[in-house]
Automatic annotation (TrEMBL):
Gene: buk
Organism encoding this protein: Aminipila luticellarii
Listed NCBIfam families: butyr_kinase (TIGR02707), PRK03011.1-5 (NF002834)
Record's keyword terms, sorted: ATP-binding, Cytoplasm, Kinase, Nucleotide-binding, Transferase
InterPro entries, per the entry: Aliphatic_acid_kin_short-chain (IPR000890), Aliphatic_acid_kinase_CS (IPR023865), ATPase_NBD (IPR043129), Butyrate_kin (IPR011245)
Compartments, record wording: Cytoplasm
Name recorded for this polypeptide: Probable butyrate kinase
GO biological process: acetate metabolic process
Reactions catalysed according to its record: butanoate + ATP = butanoyl phosphate + ADP
């Protein structure tokens, strides 16, 4: 039986679209959205029609016959109370997303874009390994404020996809390994995986700074900034996500450019780049005691893991914990398609929201 599956991955500045026939990639496109194109939209949800039209244009360009599709799968976003694995996008999930129950993030559009294509065709739409899929152990959820619980939020889809590849490389099952995975992209998150679950993680706003995010800042500094009268809520969030990190310091989030600056003798860029590696290493170190240091492999993945300069600096500080596997880039489109394929083949069951 052959299944054609459309994967959709909305990021903050791009929408990736890929078509798979079973495990085989038919085509993959990355639609880049400029800041100018996105500027008319106050909220990320307002971009739905704009992104949907961009996807339709790609489907037309590749001559995709919509009635041939078996399912559409989108990146899952920041809805509360999600588990890992696949979910059927149903009207309840759609309403929750449109009703603002999810914290703002481009990934929330994944379910909506998938549903919009699939529903008129009478085929299922899914999300898979959503950003907020929560597998934390009870102890990891506790904070020092009784009314505040830590909730998992990390690059679940790519972390799990890369973990499965590392497990396969070593002839093991992901579920039988303990892996400490750092996703080094425009945002950075780190997760400790045990028994096939992310049992604790450091979010992009709670650990190392990254190419475009502030990472963790002492809480009282943030309280002061919020009440300074200088920034409104949206501006504060922009400082944390989008305009923080290396971009705030150096005017660019492009690590390839930053490495050129370093190579041409820019000492400030060198210190900042080293500080990013130092903070990633500290984040990895923070999670190792969760499993009493018994980690099989540390995995460095995401776009920045293409950089030998960066991965060498991190490796030097964390190799005492476990051997380091470098898995550069991301495999999110394939991970989405393979998740949907397992559901279509009856190897996994889609959950209902
Ligand atoms: N060869 C490379 N060397 C260093 N950094 C890279 C390289 N390729 C991509 N990057 C960096 O990876 C980051 C984007 O990571 P990626 O995982 O692709 O994106 P996102 O987090 O936006 O999905 C950017 O900071 C980019 O500069
Ligand atoms: C840590 C949450 C997931 C996330 O930030 O995704 P992007 O880096 O793709 O924005």
């Amino acid at each position: 039986m052959s299944y054609k599956i459309l994967s959709i991955n909305p990021g903050s500045t791009s929408t990736k679209v890929a078509l798979y026939e079973n495990e085989t990639l038919v085509f993959s496109e990355n639609i880049e959205h400029t800041a100018e194109e996105l500027s008319p939209y106050e909220e990320v949800l307002d971009q739905l029609e704009f992104r949907s039209e961009a996807i339709q244009a790609i489907l037309k360009k590749h001559g995709v016959v919509l009635s041939d599709l078996a399912a559409v799968v989108g990146r899952g976003g920041l809805l509360p109370n999600l588990h890992a694995g696949g979910y059927l996008v149903n009207p309840h999930m759609k309403e929750a997303l449109l009703g603002g129950q999810a914290s703002p993030h481009a990934s929330n559009l994944g379910a909506l874009l998938a549903y919009e294509i699939a529903e008129p065709l009478g085929i299922p739409s899914y999300i898979y390994d959503a950003v907020m899929a929560d597998e934390f152990e009870e102890i990891a959820k506790i904070t020092g404020l009784p009314d505040v619980q830590r909730q998992s939020m990390c690059h679940v889809l790519n972390m799990k996809a890369m973990s499965r590849k590392v497990a396969e490389k070593h002839g093991k099952r992901y579920e039988d390994m303990t892996l400490l995975v750092a996703h080094l992209g425009g945002g950075i998150s780190i997760g400790i995986h045990k028994g096939g679950k992310i049992i604790d993680a450091i979010r992009d706003d709670a650990g190392p700074f990254s190419p475009e995010r502030s990472g963790s800042i002492p809480l009282l500094y943030i309280v002061d900034m919020c009440y300074s009268g200088i920034y409104n809520r949206k501006e504060m969030i922009k400082r944390i996500r989008g305009m923080g990190g290396l971009k705030a310091h150096l005017g660019t989030a492009d690590c390839r450019r930053i490495e050129k600056m370093i190579e041409s003798g820019d000492e400030r860029a060198k210190l900042l780049y080293e500080a990013q590696a130092y903070q990633v290493a500290k984040g990895i170190g923070e999670l190792a005691p969760v499993v009493s240091g018994k980690v099989d492999y540390i995995i460095l993945t995401g776009g920045v893991a293409y950089s030998k300069m960066m991965t060498d600096m991190i490796k030097e500080r964390v190799e005492f914990i476990a051997p380091v596997e470098i898995m550069p880039g991301e495999d999110e489109m394939e991970a989405l398609a393979l998740g949907a394929l397992r559901i279509l083949r009856g190897e996994e069951t889609a959950q209902e929201y």
